[in-house]
Write a structure and sequence with these properties.
By secondary structure, this protein is an alpha+beta fold. 33% of the residues lie in helices and 36% in strands. It has 4 helices and 6 strands; from the N terminus they run E-E-E-H-H-E-E-H-H-E. It has helices at residues 37-41, 50-72, 112-125, 127-132; strands at residues 7-12, 19-25, 31-35, 79-90, 94-106, 137-145. A 3-stranded antiparallel β-sheet has the order 1-2-3. A 3-stranded mixed β-sheet has the order 4-5-6, covered by helices on one side. A hairpin with a 5-residue loop joins strand 2 and strand 3 (31-35). Helix 2 (50-72) packs across helix 3 (112-125). The protein is elongated. The chain starts with 6 loop residues before the first strand and ends with a strand.
């Protein structure tokens, strides 16, 4: 089984003075998200960026992979809160250099060491991590709440 998802974007003008939008996505969940060069490299001012969307994809992907790993180990998460912080910096060209995941979770009956080990496994194996691994530094900080 294979699934294809798509997004359609448009742009007008040059890179630094122009503007664009993410017009449609295959699910219909979002549309007309404004994007500019400055929203990537300076203040976002209510606009999104590809890096922010990568962070959203990584945090949601990791949360599902981590919940699955916990369940397979016999633990059901009451709540997982995941943040992915994607950093881009100017090198020869602007480059995404890292995605730092942090997760806080309430999971009855699990020890902190196992929670951390399973978080590390989910970081390595969620589909978005696998897509960017080798090009982007990946990390995870896991905090088990009582």
């Amino acid at each position: 089984m294979a699934e294809t998802r798509w997004a359609e974007s448009s742009w007008s003008g040059d890179l630094t003075g122009g503007a664009g939008s993410i017009d449609y996505v295959s699910s219909g969940a979002v549309s007309r998200l404004a994007v500019t060069w400055s929203s990537r490299t300076e203040a976002s001012n209510g606009r999104t960026s590809p890096e922010e969307l990568l962070a959203a994809a990584h945090s949601s992907c990791f949360s599902m992979a981590f919940a699955n790993a916990l369940a397979k180990a016999g633990h059901t998460a009451e709540r997982l809160v995941v943040r992915a912080s994607v950093m881009a910096e100017k090198r020869e060209a602007w480059t995404v250099v890292s995605s730092a995941l942090s997760v806080r979770g309430r999971v009855p009956g699990i020890e902190a060491a196992e929670f951390g080990r399973l978080a590390e496994d989910a970081k390595e194996n969620c589909p978005i991590s696998r897509a960017i691994k080798g090009n982007v530094e990946l990390s995870v900080e896991a905090t088990l709440e009582s």
